[in-house]
Amino acid sequence: MSGPRGPVVALALCAVAAAGCGLGEGESQGEVELTITRDYGSELISRGSEEASESDSVLRLLDRQAEVETRYGGGFVQSVGGLSGTSREGRRLDWFFYVNGIESPVGSGEYQPEGGDRVWWDYRDWSGAMRVPAVVGSYPEPFLHGFKGEDWGTEVRCLIQRRICDLVADRLASVGVRAAVTSGLGAEDTRSIRILVGPWRRISSDPAASLLARGPAGSGVFARFQDGGLIVFDVRGEAADRVEDAGLIAAVRVGEGPPTWLVTGTDGGSVATLGAPLLDEGLRDRYAIAATPEDGVLALPLGDSS
Question: Cis peptide leading into 140, omega within 30 of 0?
Fold first, then answer.
């Protein structure tokens, strides 16, 4: 979906936005990465880059890489590469898009990308969660380029041994992101992206982190801590398994402000050995990930929509 409330996408600038509106190309904005997947990123359809001009929209970039069909006068992306939105056995599948890991508040025909942006289209079952406001799968975005021209900055909020938080900061530094490490949860209304690092019992009181208690439909994250364990959900939003020793990396977002990233786990050991070391390119095309000693890395949600 293109915005926070409806199936993907688009309020286009004009009815023929997918093919271009006859506008001049304008000045180059730089390279934009475009990724197309299905089933919560479990299947990569294509990945490439496009030179974006100041007159380009996310929808126009998509049309350059794939065959696109729209509905409602170009205001809704119905099909990409022949894969169409549909209803099946009470489930709804549609196209959604993210820019730098953030669900856009405007349609793909209105969003003008900038150089360095990562645009991600995913075809998925949204019966379990209509809204997924933030995802981790465009890492190292949004830390590098923010969202819609906003440079949010990054704070590592440390609620565990300092060495673990320093590891997270070092991982960020390796991809060009400077992050201050401070103790405690800090203010929720900061204009920086907060990365909360610590066991769940230490971060659960944070208003953004506490969204997990609402389940996938309320948080957009297909995992929830409960009674000392981690419940993981399938694409329908149904509890699929319970893990006693697990790390979790996920992103949540309250309102239109910066997202909050969670590097957490059932206890301090799971954060140190399972959570923090996974902050790398292994997050690519994932909505969120969990990790266990027995099963390794689990892409969330479990299963697919086929």
Answer: yes
DSSP state of 213: G
Domain ranges of the chain: 17-125, 154-300
Under CATH, which number does the domain 17-125 receive?
Answer: 2.170.130.30
Closest CA to 177 of 188, 168, 190: 168
Of the candidates 154, 183, 158, 136, the one whose C-alpha atom is nearest the C-alpha of residue 268 is 158
Residue 6 CB partners (closer than 8 Å, separation 6+): none
> What's the pTM?
0.89
Q: What is the largest CA-CA distance in the chain?
A: 58
Query: What topology is assigned to 154-300 in CATH?
Result: Chitobiase; domain 2 (3.30.379)
C-alpha distance across the termini of the chain, in Å: 19
For 107-136, b/e burial (b = at least 16 CB within 10 A) is bbbbbbbbebbbbbbbbbbbbbbbbbbbbb
Contact, 271 vs 160, CB < 8 A? yes
Q: What is the DSSP letter of 150?
A: B
Q: What are the pLDDT digits (tens) for 60-83?
A: 999 998 999 988 766 678 899 999
